Amino acid sequence: MATSKVLGYLESRKNLTGGALGLVGLVLTYTGVAGPYWPVVVAGLYGAGAMIAPPERPPLPDFPDPSAQLDELREDFERLRDYLRDVDLPPVAAAGAERLDEVLAALLDPGWAAELLAQDPESLHVLARTVRRDVPEAVDTFARTRWWTRLAPGQQPPEHHLERQLALLHEELLRTADSLRETEARRQESHTRYLEDRGQSG
Q1: For residue 74, what is the enclosing H or E element?
Q2: Which helix (H) or strand (E) holds 141?
Q3: Which is more confident, 150 or 106?
Q4: Cα dist from 26 to 15, 46, 52, 110, whole Å
Q5: What is the average per-residue pLDDT within 101-124?
């Protein structure tokens, strides 16, 4: 630990800048300018260099880039699919889950959508939240509530809540897809205006 700190300081900007000015002090010593006070001059120049050196910048956190995040999300989506295959969903809820699956598969496709998602962290967050939290929690809560309902019938059927939750998630994903479509439309319009302006200026 101590060795790494020493090595870190030796490679630091403070030490390098101080060392450079210290060398200037040695040059002044050899040329006779510093005189008998050369140790003070060298030490002073080194200290001044260390003080004026710019502070060290800590390295940025090594977060995964958007493409790596998408790859991880695709893997989690496949795990979610495997999980849903093992759950006995009522027909209406199963149809809702299938609609969700279709939209998620389209948005997570490695094609055109991936490029847009890589530039839109908010949409990527919506997809990640849907896959990793919202759908698993909705289905798991349904499965647990259904077990209790069988013990104590008479309550509102839990599949009603699940169907509504899946419908709301589907609507949210469609809004996300619409937002991505609008991004592409704006890009296309911007390119049209650019070409028009270029034609007028030419």
Answers
A1: helix 66-85
A2: helix 135-151
A3: 106
A4: 16, 11, 19, 62
A5: 85
